[in-house]
Amino acid sequence: MRQEQRLAAILGKLADAGSVTVTGLAEDLATSVASIRRDLQSLEEQKLLKRTHGGAVAVEVIYELPLRYRVGRREEKRQIAEAAAKFVTESVHSVGLNGGTTTTELARLLAGTRQLKVVTNALNIASDLCPRPTIDLVVTGGGVRPESYELVGPIADRALAGISLDLVFLGVDGIDARGGITTHDEVEAHTDHCLLRTADRVVVLADGSKVGKRAFSRIAGIADVHVVITDSSAPAAELDRLRAAGVEVVVA
């Protein structure tokens, strides 16, 4: 197992249990105690946990894991991305993508299709799409959020103000019928709102763990969302509330 996978697994176990032990992690992850100790030191330096004698405990609140450690639900996110790609029909000539693991999966699918203009504020998506001859890529500029690799803030907002897109795909941290779509960071939320306003149609990509949940900052109300694509783990009652609010729901 690579170190990045171990770090993600450690954070996942910590989120579930609140504490972990060095020996328990070494056994569960089939690696050495010395490697686990180095992993815990690395995560503590990033302020993602607090080491204790013989293990580690969760910091008081972990609101958002950095993108590089969000490795869970890969199969679900791939299926959501595949369902989202079907919305990029021949009549769609321009799309917008914000940052996130699911929008990154979608970007990789779009890269091998036909000629398409893509606007993004995500550095990792821009890096993936830049060499693709079929993609006419536009990157917003802005201040960098290391947690999500996104460019946000006034520079990004101004870049988005003057454009019009056929379709925007938004990854979010929460969606529910009353609270709308939300994310962890207020500056990111404003930039996502600016991206949303460029589009004729807005498609939200959210795995089941985010449906019925609210994060700190509101991106937009549910009336601004045309479609949500999720997976079968999403609570059925929450999906019914979204449908009742006029949102098309696709379960990948």
From TrEMBL:
Top-rank lineage group of the source organism:
Bacteria
Which molecular-function annotation in GO is an example for this chain?
Answer: DNA-binding transcription factor activity
Q: Where is the HTH deoR-type domain?
A: 3-58
Alphabetized, the UniProt keywords read:
Transcription, Transcription regulation
At the highest ranks, the source species' classification is: Bacteria, Bacillati, Actinomycetota, Actinomycetes, Pseudonocardiales
Question: Matching SMART domains, A to Z?
Answer: DeoRC, HTH_DEOR
What is the protein's name according to its record? Transcriptional regulator, DeoR family
- Pfam families given in the database record: DeoRC, HTH_DeoR
Tell me which positions the record assigns to the signal sequence.
none
